[in-house]
Design a protein that fits this description.
The protein is of the alpha+beta class. It has six helices and eleven strands. The protein has two domains: 22-91, 2-Layer Sandwich (Dna Ligase, domain 1), CATH 3.30.1490; 96-201, 2-Layer Sandwich (D-amino Acid Aminotransferase, Chain A, domain 1).
């Protein structure tokens, strides 16, 4: 079994034509100013390391950072986390948060999930599943089964459908994917952007 960290997972998905949030990886606080001058505030700072799985539980995700002083403080806190290797700086964007996922089951092969993401994942358990592969109509039904997705407009719905179908193609191309977690996928008025991802291989 091999686990792709967020950095590895996002780079892999980006090569497979998924839209990933603008981000940079740093190891020293001296790199912060140059990056934020380019991408602007607000930003998110996250811990990264091969042995780090649950960033949130470790206090390794700092959101809504509005200035350089806050960024410096967040970085210093993140750097103290055990197994820290680097920090990820991302542009913070607003939108509805969803999850996309894949899990390989012994009985049915790869199953795909779509549901409420971010802080709502555990709280709401608002999620739908389908066995891969499925068509556009089934992808649309998946979205309709999720309460949090009821207010999506047609454009947003179509963007999510495309992402769900791309996941089906991905596991056909890479059958050794055991688990794939995208959470959150932030859906804005214009696009759907992956903000965090993790992949487990057989």
């Amino acid at each position: 079994m091999k686990i792709f960290t967020e950095k590895e997972a996002e780079e892999f998905l980006e090569k497979e034509d998924f839209k990933i949030i603008q981000r940079k990886y740093i190891t020293h606080k001296s790199e912060i100013k140059k990056i934020v001058n380019k991408i602007g505030f607000p930003i998110v700072l996250k811990v990264s390391g091969k042995k780090i799985v649950h960033k949130n539980k470790l206090g390794g995700v700092k959101t809504n950072i509005q200035n350089y002083e806050q960024a410096l403080k967040a970085f210093n806190e993140i750097k103290k986390i055990k197994n820290f290797e680097q920090a990820i700086i991302q542009k913070q964007i607003e939108g509805e948060e969803f999850l996309l996922g894949i899990k390989k089951t012994p009985e049915f092969g790869h199953a795909c999930a779509f549901g409420a993401g971010g802080v709502h994942t555990e709280k709401l358990k608002d999620i739908s599943f389908r066995i891969c592969s499925f068509n556009k109509n089934e992808a649309k039904k998946m979205i309709q089964e999720v309460k949090m997705a009821q207010n999506l407009n047609k454009k947003n719905t179509n963007i999510i459908i495309k992402n769900l179908l791309k996941l089906c193609k991905l596991v056909k191309k890479y059958p050794k994917i055991k688990e794939l977690d995208i959470n959150p996928l932030i859906v804005t008025t214009k696009s759907a952007i992956i903000v965090d991802a993790r992949i487990v291989w057989e």
